[in-house]
């Protein structure tokens, strides 16, 4: 097989770097728990004005957006590899299946050390891309849109309503308070093997959450949308598609603005202080998913415009460096989060404010950029990327750059 995986698109690497910034902020504001924590952890900061501001900022602009952004870029990468391969499509798809199987192994190992892992989810959902390799652009786009606005989850809700299934009880089995407290105690105790055992036992809960919330469908929808973008050469030839991205920018921010106004109006009306009908809950959930999707596309268009400016060349170069080492950087964020927030190191979870968590995330991200730039001056790939590539091709890949 001869896929030109080394042919990089700086803009796409830059977007990947920006996605990593969003991911670390989303995780470190929650002290990198990767799972629901007992209410006692955040209670001391609920009366703190700065914490409230940071939580509001995070809820509107960060949380729920960047897992989808990263998913979109995963789909773009699949499309790029498929377009560049010089082998038969069947041979490429077989190699890609092996590639994401390896990713699943990395993800499972990562999940044992941190419940918030997305790589194991990507590996499972990624096999679905193989089924869409030959479909038309129109089908690809419409299926992507249906999944992104979470239609399957809304149908799922309707089925449960008509069957009188208690969804509250199901959610209670996923995020049970005793389990959350046990998890917090394990984090703070810093005992390695009991922590791994608890994470392993929690994997079925994680999958329940993915299905019940619809995140699994949204992730795959963004895979397909990214694949569609790659097919259309939208990011590869950004300058030729500036009109498309300008329209995307305007439409998405307009939708987000309207939905935010609706949300503020509902909040002020006090409707969330009472029991609301299931149909209204489903409608609000769909609007929330739509807002998140529009925010992702707004980021794709807006950041692409910024990074395409000559005055932003240094920013593009910095983000592209960490973007080229996205897998290594993502796993390193967990390793550093372990040391900073868990009992294996400084044990700061809940002991610093969410604002400090944000600040720590920014500092770690800047350090990762510096490390990525230093590393790529000497090596062709990030260490985990090199290992993944070597196992994909079942032979040792060149690593050092020739001086």
TrEMBL record:
InterPro entries xrefs: Bact_Transport_Assoc, DUF418
Transmembrane parts of this sequence: 12-33, 53-83, 90-108, 139-155, 209-228, 248-272, 278-307, 327-349, 355-376
Keywords: Membrane, Transmembrane, Transmembrane helix
Mitochondrion among keywords: no
DUF418 domain ranges (all copies): 229-394
A Pfam family reported for this protein in Swiss-Prot or TrEMBL: DUF418
Name of this chain's protein: DUF418 domain-containing protein
Protein source organism: Runella defluvii
């Amino acid at each position: 097989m001869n896929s030109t995986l080394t042919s990089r698109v700086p803009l796409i690497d830059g977007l990947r770097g920006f996605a990593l910034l969003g991911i670390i902020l989303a995780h470190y504001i929650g002290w990198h728990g990767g799972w629901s924590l007992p209410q006692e952890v955040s209670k001391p900061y609920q009366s703190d004005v700065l914490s409230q501001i940071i939580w509001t900022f995070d809820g509107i602009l960060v949380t729920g957006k960047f897992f989808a952004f990263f998913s979109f870029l995963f789909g773009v990468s699949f499309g790029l590899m498929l377009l560049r391969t010089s082998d038969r499509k069947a041979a490429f798809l077989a190699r890609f299946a092996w590639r994401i199987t390896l990713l699943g192994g990395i993800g499972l190992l990562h999940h044992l050390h941190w419940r918030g892992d997305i790589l194991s989810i990507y590996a499972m959902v990624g096999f679905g891309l193989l089924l869409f390799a030959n479909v038309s652009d129109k089908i690809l786009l419409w299926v992507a849109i249906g999944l992104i606005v979470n239609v399957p989850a809304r149908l799922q809700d309707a089925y449960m309503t008509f069957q009188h299934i208690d969804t509250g009880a199901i959610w209670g089995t996923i995020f049970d308070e005793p389990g959350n407290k046990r998890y917090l105690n394990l984090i703070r105790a810093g005992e390695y093997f009991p922590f791994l055992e608890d994470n392993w036992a929690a994997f079925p809960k994680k999958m329940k959450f993915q299905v019940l919330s619809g995140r699994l469908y949204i992730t795959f929808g963004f895979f397909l949308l990214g694949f569609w973008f790659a097919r259309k050469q939208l990011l590869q030839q950004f300058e030729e598609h500036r009109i498309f991205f300008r329209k995307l920018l305007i439409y998405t921010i307009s939708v987000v603005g309207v939905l935010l106004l609706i949300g503020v109006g509902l909040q002020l009306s006090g409707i969330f202080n009472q029991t609301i009908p299931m149909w209204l809950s489903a409608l609000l959930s769909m609007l929330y998913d739509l807002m998140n999707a529009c925010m992702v596309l707004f980021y794709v268009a807006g950041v692409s415009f910024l990074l395409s400016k000559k005055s932003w060349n240094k920013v593009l170069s910095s983000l592209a460096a960490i973007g080229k080492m996205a897998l290594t950087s993502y796993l390193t964020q967990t390793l550093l989060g372990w040391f900073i927030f868990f009992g294996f190191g400084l044990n700061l979870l809940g002991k610093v404010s969410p604002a400090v968590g944000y600040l720590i995330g920014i500092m770690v991200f800047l350090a990762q950029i510096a490390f990525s730039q230093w590393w790529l001056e000497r090596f062709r790939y990030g260490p985990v990327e090199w290992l993944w590539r070597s196992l994909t091709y079942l032979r040792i890949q060149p690593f050092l750059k020739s001086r």
